[in-house]
């Protein structure tokens, strides 16, 4: 259990991780819960809908879930007191279908709607000036300038055509950022370093913006190279009061989408934190904002900061702010929506400890740091057995990850009195997280939080391409870690053999061959009790463990060091897939005789796939730009695949032999799209 800050007035239900840590004991209300709403309709899906429902239920508020037809059995639907289907799978026909949602409000008698991350009182149902102004990046920038908030140089109007985009970009000076005026979450954003990239960026950004937000307007501004992305959490009421709840460091990103966040930032000093906080509050007051919101800044190496955008909603990364302040931001939003004044003054807001959030996605991190993956979670186990761990998720074992929605599995949050403690807890949590049935990004997350640059705080929004210039390759084994993995595989193989063979007598010595990547290693193994001693190349490695082969987790002590491995698969031929230090490794363990006989087997010649263009991910075909017989120049676009509202252009440079897809079709990962000569 952890200390709850004194300003936290929440009732913590057993097992509910409101302040970012696992809290096992019930805490009584320090004051009576306020009278707010009887029923709230939550017009969201997934983990954020579940997160809101937890606080609503704690406050005694009935909840209504809306869902698409494919989400009928989703977790947020099961959690709600009532549920209403609002349409088919595409978000434009369901979760963004305002008419259907309004019908659901009227049918259920909900008094407030939680939509776009905010609470809107239905009796006065409208988007306030703040929501409209800050939801538009062009207008928000003009308002920020008027409120004396630092802004990025750029064009303050709507960019209407490709030609205009090129002219404006040339006037500003490359590089530039092209982004959707109504955008967020990294969608509808492209960096352009020249005229050609501006033309391409304009096209993709406008298409993604229209698909995601129903608004294809774009703006262009100067791209600040190698900055940090740091945001300020604000909280304001309807009585003119506003607070800043410290910062969140969000610089670890891929495709302008956050991957790992922490609070506070290692970079800010007290003076810069206060200056950013005060400007964030100035902006909130300038638009008469009343709720929880986030003002995002880019910060350069000299601690100069520039307004990026204001999100008038509850951010994905809000749990880490809850960790270090003790506030339940959802409760505060509900109180404000009802008309209550803020309970706290600026001097009451603490920074207690450190919190880190890892976004766990159904993505393949080996493809552009994360292309979407789909599938069914055949096995799913969150690491809630560990202390100071919080998991916000909207899925469970058996849930489907589809092409229609964001591929986020969960937000994994750890807390500690110091950053080192929070990082150590995150490392353990990632090792103990069991996810089967979909490709996930655990390996990338673990490599990030254990990298020396991240540990030292030397980060920027360019962290991933700088650290992995040739793309992410997983954990790179050194001599010691390689021996650990080989020894663990050998010990696991023998344990399985002994269990399956029911051998009579005492077997205590084995000669094995362990294959890993391109290497073949001869090992001698002895067993005493439950401890294996594995010798290879003159070095001995001791492996001790519980050896519960039915469990997905393998807690081992290797030469006295605790390691949590996962056995992802194994078969009778000796092939084993182990998750070790976050990365999956394919290993094969053979007896000495089997290895000798195997050397006589002919090797399978790999298929020549150089003439085949396959889909790198599941998704929908947006456009096909070629036909059989066309000659394709280097870098020329062949087709565009869209998944989770992100568009990816596929290119090649050969004669087209045949085309196997057409616009509108759904394709799976690895499906053949185009065959080349």
Automatic annotation (TrEMBL):
<dbReference type="Pfam" id="PF02786">
    <property type="entry name" value="CPSase_L_D2"/>
</dbReference>
<keyword id="KW-0443">Lipid metabolism</keyword>
<keyword id="KW-0464">Manganese</keyword>
<dbReference type="InterPro" id="IPR016185">
    <property type="entry name" value="PreATP-grasp_dom_sf"/>
</dbReference>
<keyword id="KW-0092">Biotin</keyword>
<comment type="pathway">
    <text>Metabolic intermediate metabolism; propanoyl-CoA degradation; succinyl-CoA from propanoyl-CoA: step 1/3.</text>
</comment>
<dbReference type="InterPro" id="IPR005482">
    <property type="entry name" value="Biotin_COase_C"/>
</dbReference>
<dbReference type="Pfam" id="PF00364">
    <property type="entry name" value="Biotin_lipoyl"/>
</dbReference>
<keyword id="KW-0436">Ligase</keyword>
<dbReference type="InterPro" id="IPR011761">
    <property type="entry name" value="ATP-grasp"/>
</dbReference>
<dbReference type="InterPro" id="IPR011053">
    <property type="entry name" value="Single_hybrid_motif"/>
</dbReference>
<keyword id="KW-0067">ATP-binding</keyword>
<dbReference type="GO" id="GO:0005524">
    <property type="term" value="F:ATP binding"/>
</dbReference>
<dbReference type="GO" id="GO:0016042">
    <property type="term" value="P:lipid catabolic process"/>
</dbReference>
<dbReference type="InterPro" id="IPR000089">
    <property type="entry name" value="Biotin_lipoyl"/>
</dbReference>
<protein>
    <recommendedName>
        <fullName>Propionyl-CoA carboxylase alpha chain, mitochondrial</fullName>
        <ecNumber>6.4.1.3</ecNumber>
    </recommendedName>
</protein>
<dbReference type="Pfam" id="PF02785">
    <property type="entry name" value="Biotin_carb_C"/>
</dbReference>
<feature type="domain" description="Biotin carboxylation">
    <location>
        <begin position="36"/>
        <end position="469"/>
    </location>
</feature>
<keyword id="KW-0547">Nucleotide-binding</keyword>
<dbReference type="InterPro" id="IPR013815">
    <property type="entry name" value="ATP_grasp_subdomain_1"/>
</dbReference>
<feature type="domain" description="Lipoyl-binding">
    <location>
        <begin position="604"/>
        <end position="677"/>
    </location>
</feature>
<dbReference type="Pfam" id="PF18140">
    <property type="entry name" value="PCC_BT"/>
</dbReference>
<dbReference type="InterPro" id="IPR005481">
    <property type="entry name" value="BC-like_N"/>
</dbReference>
<dbReference type="InterPro" id="IPR005479">
    <property type="entry name" value="CPAse_ATP-bd"/>
</dbReference>
<keyword id="KW-0460">Magnesium</keyword>
<keyword id="KW-0442">Lipid degradation</keyword>
<dbReference type="GO" id="GO:0046872">
    <property type="term" value="F:metal ion binding"/>
</dbReference>
<dbReference type="InterPro" id="IPR001882">
    <property type="entry name" value="Biotin_BS"/>
</dbReference>
<keyword id="KW-0809">Transit peptide</keyword>
<dbReference type="InterPro" id="IPR041265">
    <property type="entry name" value="PCC_BT"/>
</dbReference>
<dbReference type="InterPro" id="IPR011054">
    <property type="entry name" value="Rudment_hybrid_motif"/>
</dbReference>
<dbReference type="InterPro" id="IPR011764">
    <property type="entry name" value="Biotin_carboxylation_dom"/>
</dbReference>
<dbReference type="Pfam" id="PF00289">
    <property type="entry name" value="Biotin_carb_N"/>
</dbReference>
<keyword id="KW-0479">Metal-binding</keyword>
<dbReference type="InterPro" id="IPR050856">
    <property type="entry name" value="Biotin_carboxylase_complex"/>
</dbReference>
<dbReference type="GO" id="GO:0005759">
    <property type="term" value="C:mitochondrial matrix"/>
</dbReference>
<dbReference type="GO" id="GO:0004658">
    <property type="term" value="F:propionyl-CoA carboxylase activity"/>
</dbReference>
<feature type="domain" description="ATP-grasp">
    <location>
        <begin position="143"/>
        <end position="338"/>
    </location>
</feature>
């Amino acid at each position: 259990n952890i200390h709850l800050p004194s300003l936290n007035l929440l009732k913590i239900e057993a097992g509910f991780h409101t302040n970012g840590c696992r809290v096992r004991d019930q805490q009584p209300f320090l004051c009576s819960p306020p009278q707010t709403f009887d029923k709230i309709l939550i017009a969201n899906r997934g983990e954020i809908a579940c997160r809101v429902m937890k606080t609503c239920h704690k406050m005694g508020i009935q909840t209504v879930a809306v869902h698409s037809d494919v989400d009928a059995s989703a977790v947020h639907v099961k959690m709600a007191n009532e549920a209403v289907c609002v349409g088919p799978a595409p978000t434009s026909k369901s979760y963004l279908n305002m008419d259907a949602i309004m019908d659901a409000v009227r049918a259920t008698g909900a008094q407030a709607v939680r939509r776009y991350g905010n609470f809107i009182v239905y009796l006065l149902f409208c988007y306030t000036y703040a929501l409209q102004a800050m939801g538009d990046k062009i207008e928000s920038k003009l308002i920020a300038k008027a409120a004396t908030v630092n802004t990025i140089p750029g064009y303050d109007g709507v960019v209407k055509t490709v030609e205009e985009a090129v002219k404006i970009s040339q006037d500003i000076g490359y590089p530039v950022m092209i982004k959707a005026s109504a955008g967020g979450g990294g969608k509808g954003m492209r960096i352009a370093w020249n005229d050609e990239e501006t033309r391409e960026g304009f096209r993709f950004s406008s298409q993604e913006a229209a698909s995601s937000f129903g608004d294809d307007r774009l703006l262009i501004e100067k791209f600040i190279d190698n900055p940090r992305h740091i945001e300020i959490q604000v909280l304001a009421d309807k009585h003119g009061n506003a607070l800043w709840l410290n910062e969140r460091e969000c610089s670890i990103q891929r495709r302008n989408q956050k991957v790992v966040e922490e609070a506070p930032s290692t970079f800010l000093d007290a003076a810069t934190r206060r200056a950013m906080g005060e400007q964030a509050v100035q902006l909130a007051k300038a638009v008469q904002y009343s709720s929880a919101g986030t003002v995002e800044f880019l910060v350069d190496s000299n601690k100069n900061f520039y307004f990026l955008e204001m999100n008038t909603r509850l951010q994905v990364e809000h749990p880490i702010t809850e960790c270090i302040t003790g506030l339940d931001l959802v409760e505060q939003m509900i109180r404000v929506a009802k008309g209550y004044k803020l309970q706290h003054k600026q001097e009451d807001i603490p920074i207690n400890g450190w919190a880190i959030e890892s976004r766990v996605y159904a993505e393949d991190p080996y493809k552009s740091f994360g292309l979407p993956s789909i599938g069914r979670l055949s096995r799913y186990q969150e690491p809630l057995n560990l202390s100071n761990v919080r998991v916000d998720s909207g899925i469970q074992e058996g849930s489907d990850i589809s092409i229609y929605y964001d591929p986020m599995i969960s937000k994994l949050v750890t807390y500690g009195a110091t950053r080192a403690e929070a990082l150590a807890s995150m490392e353990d949590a990632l090792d103990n997280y069991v996810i089967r049935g979909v490709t996930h990004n655990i390996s990338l997350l673990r490599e990030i939080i254990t990298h020396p640059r991240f540990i030292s705080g030397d980060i920027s929004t360019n962290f991933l391409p700088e650290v992995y210039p040739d793309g992410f390759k997983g954990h790179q084994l050194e001599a010691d870690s390689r021996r650990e993995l080989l020894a663990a595989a050998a010990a696991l193989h023998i344990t399985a053999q002994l269990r399956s063979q029911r051998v009579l007598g005492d077997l205590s010595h084995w000669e094995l061959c362990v294959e890993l990547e391109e290497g073949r290693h001869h090992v001698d193994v002895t067993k005493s009790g439950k401890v294996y001693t594995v010798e290879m190349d003159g070095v001995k490695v001791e492996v001790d463990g519980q050896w519960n082969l039915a469990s997905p987790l393998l807690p081992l002590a290797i030469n006295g060091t605790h390691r949590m491995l996962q056995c992802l698969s194994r078969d009778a031929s000796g092939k084993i897939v182990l998750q070790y230090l976050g990365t999956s490794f394919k290993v094969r363990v053979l007896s000495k005789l089997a290895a000798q006989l195997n050397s006589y087997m002919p090797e399978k010649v790999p298929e020549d796939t150089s003439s085949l263009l396959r889909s790198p991910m599941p998704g929908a075909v947006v456009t096909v730009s070629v036909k059989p017989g066309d000659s394709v120049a280097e870098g020329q676009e062949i087709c565009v695949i869209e998944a989770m509202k992100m568009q990816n252009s596929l290119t090649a440079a050969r004669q087209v032999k045949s085309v196997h897809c057409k616009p509108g079709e759904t394709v799976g990962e690895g499906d053949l799209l185009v065959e080349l000569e």
